[in-house]
């Protein structure tokens, strides 16, 4: 098992955590992740992607890498704008609209990279059989289906956190966990237990249609800790509550011992989890420092939105007042 | 933390024709012989917990081993022949086990391993629909072995539910042993490896190469 250890990233308002381990008996990991401060340290961008990894998806490590890179590029632009607009709630509807469009931009950029790569090095060969299969797919499913990008398939989870706003996106399995200052953990984008290992993927046509979005204005109390992990972590627990307890425990230790201490132990925890799930296991997290919390204290104390409502399009939104 | 369970269900034809030429005895022998290899396959992936049980069907169907049993403590009691080929009854029995509950949601796809030498004598399609309508049934890894030339291979192919897959063919004890061994090891190994199949039912790796041309075909 190979552990990936990243140096602790310290931003002005946030402390970041990042760890990844390879699954037992796997040649290499198909997970990729990013946790970085942006907008002068006023915001963070988190992302994890889980390449599908089975034989049919033999380039999914690249797919996962592009997923993280393209999400991060788009999310940084979004984060700068969110920080610029700050606490002025009048601007939030525009930001929400931009948040809903972000998965489409990421999907297009990911697809472009996969198409370019596949054009120069066809995953399934470039002979007559493949051309015939592509023609058949086009006739059956339209122009968008001409190319088969399954080899690059990956999930994608991402988040942008500013002192005033939290945005999360999720395509496919994995978990976005929010832990409030009372230690209560919840998964706003959870759709219930996954059965088996089926998941939505960036390699499907129009993957943004299956991307779930959570928007939560932070109008009271400190920002929640945000943890993103690939499904290798949650599937190592006997039940969902055990996974939530783990997330709460990470936050408690980060608060009590410091994020640096948790970073030092994280690889061991993930490696233990990977023994049970058998899968690559990756976690990134952001914790607000006192600086972020202090600014937050100026906001409306009792309007903190924690209970997301589900929209028809599968997005969820916090109930905080804008 | 806990490993994810893989439920393996044998569905074994115990119709009267299985007593001809010692087929039922060879089936019992092949399964008994395969169990140690099944344990090895399970040991190779500690992230999965292999739980085994078995259904026998003939005139009706019943659980031969009803309790999902960890492969380490699984032992084989011989099945015996007792009548027709009520495969649909076996499917319905399996379907009941593939509902959630009793099947946990946190699991790897189950394995349904079917062995038959004949033609179903009941409404097997109704049974197959029952399996397909369960959350885990449609996700199950399915494998089938046709014992002898009289087995309804088109029906077994329909059970597999994947046009790219063919049922295994066992025309003699040696081929049956190879097929059972493959069902018990390669398929278990495949099913217990976490992976993604993009919302398609899990499909096992390719079937084994069973020698046959130079052997007497006694079934």
Description:
The complex is a heterodimer of chains A (322) and B (219). Chain A is built from seven helices and 13 strands. A seven-stranded mixed β-sheet of chain A has the order 3-4-5-6-9-13-12, with helices on one face. Chain A is globular. In chain A, helix 1 runs antiparallel to helix 2 and helix 5 (240-257) runs antiparallel to helix 6. The model of chain A is unreliable at 296-322 (pLDDT under 50). Chain A has helices at 60-85, 92-120, 128-141, 231-234, 240-257, 259-277, 290-296; strands spanning 3-5, 14-21, 31-38, 43-50, 156-161, 165-171, 175-179, 185-186, 212-217, 225-229, 281-288, 309-310, 316-317. Chain B has 219 residues and is an alpha/beta fold. Chain B has six helices and six strands. Chain B is globular and about 50 Å long. The N and C termini of chain B lie far apart (48 Å). Mean pLDDT of chain B is 89; it is low at 197-203. Chains A and B meet through helix 6 of A and loops of B.
String of helices and strands of chain A? EEEEHHHEEEEEEHHHEHEE
Largest sheet properties of chain A? 7 strands, mixed
Characterize the overall form of chain B.
globular
Radius of gyration of chain B: 16 Å
Describe the SSE topology.
The complex is a heterodimer of chains A (322) and B (219).
Chain A: E1 3-5, E2 14-21, E3 31-38, E4 43-50, H1 60-85, H2 92-120, H3 128-141, E5 156-161, E6 165-171, E7 175-179, E8 185-186, E9 212-217, E10 225-229, H4 231-234, H5 240-257, H6 259-277, E11 281-288, H7 290-296, E12 309-310, E13 316-317
Parallel strand pairs in A: 9-13
Antiparallel strand pairs in A: 1-2, 2-11, 3-4, 4-5, 5-6, 6-9, 7-8, 7-10, 10-11, 12-13
Chain B: E1 4-13, H1 23-43, E2 48-58, E3 60-70, H2 87-97, E4 111-116, H3 124-132, E5 141-147, H4 153-160, E6 168-170, H5 173-184, H6 186-191
Parallel strand pairs in B: 1-2, 1-4, 4-5, 5-6
Antiparallel strand pairs in B: 2-3
């Amino acid at each position: 098992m190979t552990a990936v250890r990243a140096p602790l990233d310290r931003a002005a308002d946030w402390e970041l955590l990042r760890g990844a381990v390879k699954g037992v008996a796997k040649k290499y990991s198909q997970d990729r992740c990013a946790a970085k401060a942006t907008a002068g340290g006023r915001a963070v961008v988190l992302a994890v992607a889980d390449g599908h990894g089975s034989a049919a998806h033999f380039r999914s490590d690249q797919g996962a890498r592009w997923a993280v890179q393209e999400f991060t590029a788009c999310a940084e632009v979004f984060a700068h704008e969110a920080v610029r607009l700050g606490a002025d709630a009048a601007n939030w509807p525009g930001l929400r609209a931009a948040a809903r469009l972000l998965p489409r931009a990421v999907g297009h950029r990911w697809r472009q990279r996969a198409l370019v790569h596949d054009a120069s090095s066809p995953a399934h060969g470039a002979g007559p059989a493949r051309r015939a299969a592509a023609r058949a797919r086009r006739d059956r499913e339209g122009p968008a289906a001409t190319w088969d990008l399954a080899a690059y398939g990956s999930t994608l989870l991402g988040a942008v956190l500013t002192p005033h706003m939290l945005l999360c996106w999720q395509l496919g399995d994995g978990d976005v966990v929010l832990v409030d200052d009372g230690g209560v953990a919840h998964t706003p984008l959870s759709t219930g237990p996954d059965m088996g290992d089926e998941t939505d993927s960036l390699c499907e046509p129009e993957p943004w249609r299956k991307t779930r979005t959570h928007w939560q204005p932070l109008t009271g109390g400190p920002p929640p800790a945000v943890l993103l992990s690939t499904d290798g972590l949650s599937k190592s627990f006997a039940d969902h509550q055990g996974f939530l307890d783990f997330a709460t425990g990470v936050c408690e230790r980060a608060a009590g011992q410091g994020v640096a201490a948790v970073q030092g132990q994280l690889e061991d925890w993930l490696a233990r989890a990977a023994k049970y799930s058998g899968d690559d296991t990756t976690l990134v997290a952001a914790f607000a420092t006192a600086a972020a919390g202090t600014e937050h204290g100026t906001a409306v104390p009792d309007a903190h939105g924690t209970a997301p409502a589900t929209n028809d399009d599968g997005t969820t939104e916090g109930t905080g007042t804008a | 933390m806990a490993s994810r369970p893989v439920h393996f269900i044998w569905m074994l034809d115990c119709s009267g024709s299985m007593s001809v030429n010692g087929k039922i005895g060879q089936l019992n022998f092949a399964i008994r012989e395969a169990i140690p290899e099944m344990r090895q396959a399970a040991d190779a992936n500690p992230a999965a917990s292999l739980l085994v049980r078995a259904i026998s069907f003939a005139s009706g169907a019943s659980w031969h081993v009803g309790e999902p049993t960890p492969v380490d403590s699984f032992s084989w009691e011989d099945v015996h022949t007792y009548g027709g080929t009520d495969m649909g009854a076996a499917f319905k029995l399996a379907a009941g086990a593939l509902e959630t509950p009793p099947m946990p949601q946190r699991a790897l796809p189950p394995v349904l391993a079917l062995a038959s030498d004949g033609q179903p004598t009941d409404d097997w399609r109704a049974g197959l629909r029952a399996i397909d309508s369960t959350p885990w049934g449609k996700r199950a890894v399915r494998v089938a072995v046709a014992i002898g030339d009289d087995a309804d291979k088109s029906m077994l192919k329909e059970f597999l539910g994947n046009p790219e897959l063919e049922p295994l063919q066992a025309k003699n004890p040696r081929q049956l042993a190879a097929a059972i061994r493959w069902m018990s090891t390669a398929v278990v190994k495949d099913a217990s490896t976490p992976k993604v199949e993009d919302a398609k039912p899990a499909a096992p790796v390719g079937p084994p190469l069973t020698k046959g041309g130079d052997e007497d075909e006694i079934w």
